[in-house]
Write a structure and sequence with these properties.
By secondary structure, the protein is α/β, with parallel strands linked by helices. It has 2 domains: about 120 residues, Response regulator (Rossmann fold, 3-Layer(aba) Sandwich); about 70 residues, Arc Repressor Mutant, subunit A, CATH 1.10.10. The chain is about 50% helix and about 15% strand.
């Protein structure tokens, strides 16, 4: 059973998500919060698998609440998916860098939302279609020249290659086809790379790929 917590200051939004999620046989909604402080308290008490977290909330915003969750070792298994009204919300990249497993726009199709919840529990980062590349490319284009990351020295040549492909938005299946290996082998390479770099999940691996200069915006095509 996937345990989900909802954090949004709009009652109707929470009610809509609750109705959708509660109708699934493998998902249970364990609580709701109307602001970031309530969200933190709820997560600490109920320890959900996934938190659907609105970025803009009163008292404590979703970004600060996410940092509170991802910065607490006791909550290391909790995944945060940010919810936003606009695909290129200025806070989304910071949220991912702070440990969120991804983000979705609020008008995402119901099937996509359900797939996102199930995907992040499995360790994947599922963001709104087409958003990942545009978002991170925009950030990288405005950033200073990235400094080589010392941590990359621990990676093998194949792991660097896999990390670059993850940074370009490829799934494990796509990486497997590109490298002519099995999907299981691709997943293993991704997992080992995450462990070596201390990446919380796939979303942070994407960020590290850009911050280290391993992937550049011009490579996105």
């Amino acid at each position: 059973m996937i345990r989900v917590a909802l954090a949004d200051d709009q009652l109707l939004v929470r009610a809509g998500f609750r109705a959708l999620l509660a109708a699934q046989p493998d998902i249970e909604v364990v609580g709701e919060a109307a602001d970031g402080e309530q969200a933190l308290a709820l997560v600490r008490e109920r320890r959900p698998d996934v938190v659907l977290m609105d970025i803009r909330m009163p008292v404590l915003d979703g970004l600060a609440a996410t940092r509170g969750i991802t910065g607490d070792p006791a909550l290391g298994e909790v995944k945060v998916v940010m919810l936003t009204t606009f695909e290129l919300d200025e806070y989304v990249f910071e949220a991912i860098r702070s440990g969120a497993s991804g983000f979705l726009v609020k008008d995402t199709e119901p099937d996509e939302l359900l797939r996102a919840v199930r995907a992040v529990v499995g360790g994947d980062a599922l963001l709104s279609p087409g958003v990942t590349r545009r978002l991170i490319a925009e950030f990288a284009a405005r950033s200073r020249e990235p400094a080589p990351a010392a941590a990359l020295a621990e990676l093998t040549e194949r792991e660097r290659e896999v990390m670059a492909l993850v940074g370009m938005g490829l799934s494990n299946q796509e990486i497997a086809r590109r490298l002519v290996v099995s999907p299981l082998t691709a997943k293993t390479h991704v997992s080992r790379t995450m462990v070596k770099l201390g990446a919380r999940d796939r979303a942070q691996l994407v960020v590290l790929a850009y911050e280290s200069g391993l992937v550049r915006p011009g490579w996105l095509g």
